[in-house]
Design brief:
The complex is a heterodimer.
Chain A (H helix, E strand, L loop, with lengths): L1 H16 L2 H34 L5 H11 L4 H12 L14 H25 L3 H9 L4 H11 L1 H17 L2 H7 L9 H11 L2 H25 L5
Helix pairs in contact in A: 1-11, 2-5, 2-8, 3-5, 4-5, 4-9, 5-8, 5-9, 8-11, 10-11
Chain B lengths: L1 H28 L19 E6 L1 H5 L2 H13 L2 E6 L2 H9 L5 E4 L2 H9 L3 E16 L13 H11 L3 E3 L5 H13 L9 E3 L4 H10 L3 E5 H7 L6 E4 L6 E9 L9 H11 L2 H9 L2 H4 L5 E2 L10
Parallel strand pairs in B: 1-2, 1-3, 5-6, 5-7
Antiparallel strand pairs in B: 3-9, 4-7, 4-8, 4-9, 4-10
Helix pairs in contact in B: 6-7, 8-9
Classes of the chains: A mainly alpha, B alpha/beta.
Chain lengths: 230, 301
């Protein structure tokens, strides 16, 4: 139990100290997961709309794939992306392996099915007459999609929060493609893995508490700006 | 309408924030500050960056944190450390995915050199392995005459043994010791495999009151949080040599040969050897690694 107390006080001390190395890790965590979430929303929400109202061949297959993607194991994503980004791999010339951009890519891959899945189910629950009405008024597919997203904004806000949660909690893939390099690709989750393997359990726990606080703040923020469901 | 205006504003704010963050992250990616505050110099292409694939013990013990800032200051190279364990480090070298390796599995390294994947190979430091276990020592390992004898006693009493089984340098040595003892421990009920790094394996062994093989550095780092004690030490078979190997650039065009050689030569320089000799004294009362002093060179096959 003493360790929990040490972890808790350690977290407070870390936050108050504003140690540059710690602040840097927090900033990188927010940058990587924030950018990954942004991309996940920009790609996942349109995909969700398409799956809900689109009529195109392969829609059912794509839907099943997106649902499978909700359970995509991050380590598998990490392994595949690592092999692709290897110097000898097809994307090796980009020299992206062991950079924050590689971490954004894997977090985006695990997060966008979440955004797509939640958007899709939210729109499917809307009154079908709304879509019919939009079509009667001659709205094109893009216009239709936009209006439907607007009608489900609270749920899209939730999709954003869920995608962010999936991105920031992910560790296996970020560890593989980032390499957990101090000052370059170390983020909160990979730092927790390292401190645990170093036996500094109190510091690992403190970093975990900081991660929880961050997730809480972001969720409160998203909730505050999302319109209240009617 | 009001809702969409608010939402739009928020999106704009988010984008601005992201861009600001992106600028900052990019600056720390290219020529930012190391934790010690040493400017790294701008990264022009890949030539100033070296990928070092290494065993976890040199990272977990903090040795690399003590060495790398000096190397970066001296040469301007930025080292990307990938701490993966010896087996995977050698595999990354075999594929040209790393420029230089810091590993501890002499037999596997010699094979690596013989296959022509390596160029330079220097002895950097040594420390030793220890067999640790519960203080009440049910298998009477304390009285063992050697490491192999200790393993025989553990097998004879059926006391629990934890193996890492992750092809790390420690794991390779453990497998060889079992072989020398003439025992095949696989499928035995007392032989469990953790599949994890040294630290986590020590914690697991401690929880199960089991025996395991550990490098001394990691054991010392964990000593305060576990109740295992050292039972066998000092057997010449338990010496743990760390070598630096540069990956052969003639096989892989993208390998940073110059940076790799600079790093290998730095590790056996006076400055680095002195850092290694004194490393850990302040924290553990004894140094964790013994410097190599006289570097041995394995000529290219």
């Amino acid at each position: 139990m003493e360790l929990f107390w040490q972890g808790f006080t350690g977290a407070i001390r870390l936050i108050l100290s504003a140690d540059p190395a710690f602040v840097e890790i927090v900033e990188r965590t927010l940058f990587v997961s924030g950018l990954a979430t942004g991309l996940a929303v920009l790609t996942g929400v349109p995909l969700g709309v398409g799956l809900a109202i689109g009529r195109f061949p392969g829609r059912r297959v794509l839907g099943v794939l997106v649902n499978t993607g909700l359970g995509l194991p991050p380590v598998v994503v990490g392994l595949v992306v690592t092999l692709l980004l290897w110097r000898s791999g097809p994307l090796g010339a980009l020299a992206l392996l062991y950079t924050p951009i590689a971490m954004v890519i894997v977090q985006w891959i695990v997060a966008f099915p979440v955004a797509a899945g939640i958007t899709r189910s939210a729109i499917e629950l809307l009154d079908p007459e709304l879509l019919d009405a939009l079509r009667v008024f001659g709205a094109g597919p893009v216009r239709c999609g936009w209006e439907l997203v607007r009608a489900t904004l609270p749920q899209v806000g939730f999709a954003t929060a869920a995608a962010f949660g999936r991105a920031i909690a992910e560790v296996g893939a970020s560890l593989m493609v980032g390499g957990n390099i101090l000052g370059q690709t170390r983020i909160l989750t990979t730092a927790i893995v390292l401190e645990t393997s170093r036996g500094d359990f109190a510091l690992a726990l403190a970093l975990g508490i900081v991660l929880l606080i961050l997730a809480l703040l972001v969720n409160v923020g998203i909730r505050a700006i999302s319109p209240v469901p009617r | 309408m009001r809702v969409s205006v608010t939402f739009g504003t928020v999106v704009v704010i988010l984008l601005v924030l992201l861009t600001a963050c992106a600028g900052r992250a990019a600056s720390s990616l290219h020529g930012g500050m190391t934790p010690t505050g040493v400017p790294q110099g701008t990264v022009e292409g890949q030539s100033r960056t070296i990928i070092l694939a290494t065993t976890t013990s040199v990272q977990d013990s903090g040795l690399l944190d003590a060495l790398l800032p000096r190397f970066q200051e001296e040469t301007g190279y930025v080292v990307k450390v990938i701490a993966v364990g010896t087996g995977q480090a050698l595999e990354l070298g075999r594929r040209g995915e790393a420029d230089v390796l810091l590993v501890h599995a002499p037999e596997a390294e010699e094979q690596f050199m013989a296959e022509g994947y390596g160029q330079l190979r220097f002895l950097v430091a040594t420390n030793d392995f220890v067999i640790v276990g519960p203080a009440d020592d049910p298998a009477h390992v304390r009285e063992a005459s050697s490491a192999v004898d200790a393993l025989r006693r553990i097998a004879a009493t059926g006391a629990t043994w934890v193996s890492r089984d992750d092809r790390s340098g420690t794991d390779l040595l453990e497998k060889r010791l079992w072989q020398e003892a003439g025992i095949d421990p696989r499928d035995q009920s007392w032989y469990i495999t953790s599949g994890q790094g040294m630290g986590m394996t020590l914690v697991l062994a401690d929880q199960k009151r089991a025996y395991t093989l550990s490098d001394r550095a990691t054991f010392l780092a964990f000593r305060s949080s576990i109740s295992l004690v050292i039972l066998t030490a000092g057997d010449p078979a338990l010496i743990n040599p760390y070598h630096v190997i540069t990956v052969n650039p003639t096989r892989f065009a993208r390998v940073n040969a110059r940076g790799a050689e600079a790093f290998a030569r730095f590790l056996v320089s006076q400055v680095a050897q002195q850092v290694i000799a004194s490393f850990g004294v302040d924290r553990y009362g004894e140094s964790l690694f013994r410097p190599a002093l006289v570097p041995t060179v394995t000529p290219q096959p």
